[in-house]
Specification:
Strand content: 5-15%
Helix content: 25-40%
Largest sheet: 3 strands, antiparallel
Low-confidence stretches: none
Shape: globular
Structural class: alpha+beta
Strand order of the largest sheet: 1-2-3
Length: about 100
């Protein structure tokens, strides 16, 4: 449970599979948020998961923001905030071997 807000701690995301220690899980979260930032930046959006607030914070460069509970919710809210579709499977995000 979150000491600040009383929300129950969210279960781990599938991208954290194989993490053994809390440090491993934290590193996986930071890596995931780095990938999200890279994908959302061209759309004028930001993403943050600092561990102080449950969920992922998605925002615009103009200050509008929303907190979502899951990675799946990021895409719907990001599209709503920027007003156009976002494809996280766009080939430019998948690397050279896609």
């Amino acid at each position: 449970m979150c000491n600040a807000c009383g929300n129950p701690a969210a279960p781990g995301h599938w991208t954290e599979a194989g993490t053994v220690t809390p440090g491993d899980r934290l590193r996986a979260r930071f890596h995931r948020i780095g990938v999200l930032r890279a994908i959302l930046r061209p759309y004028g959006l930001t993403a943050d998961d600092n561990g102080a607030v449950p969920g992922i914070q998605v925002g615009t460069l103009f200050g509008a923001s929303v907190i979502v509970d899951t990675l799946s919710d990021v895409w719907a809210e990001a599209e709503r905030l920027c007003g156009r579709p976002i494809d996280p499977l766009d080939p430019r995000y998948l690397g050279d071997d896609a």
